[in-house]
Amino acid sequence: MALSWGGRRKLLYAAVAAVFGFAVMFGIYRTFFTAVPTCRDGAQNGRESGVDCGGDCALLCQAEARAPVVLWVRAMSGGEGAYTAAAYVQNQNAGAYAPDVHYAFQLFDGNNLLVAQESRTGCTRAKAISPRSGLPVSC
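Structure tokens predicted for Sushi domain-containing protein / SCR repeat-containing protein (139 residues):
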């Protein structure tokens, strides 16, 4: 049985109204009844590896973070009681910056006695170490 021209037109209008109604109802449902997981909600949801870290979040989980590696260290005497120390530190984390690197230099003499000690506050301030790259540090 074929529909008349008027019947087809009514069916088309009903289908358009149904699609529009479904779209409106779906929008209302998504807006008021679903919570979008975020990286700052204090819960492990979405594709996060831990609570607000890993996965889609920019913050690297502490369990996944790898410690920086010291590739080389050099110490030179600059005269009576003066020393210069330098090191090259590499960030082993792919895709994660190391924004606040804490470090300390300890210089020992031939008898393994501490000659000088300096922490980051007295040294050249380190900037962020980019992923898979290094940073020279001196004191």
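The first strand starts at residue 69 and ends at 77.
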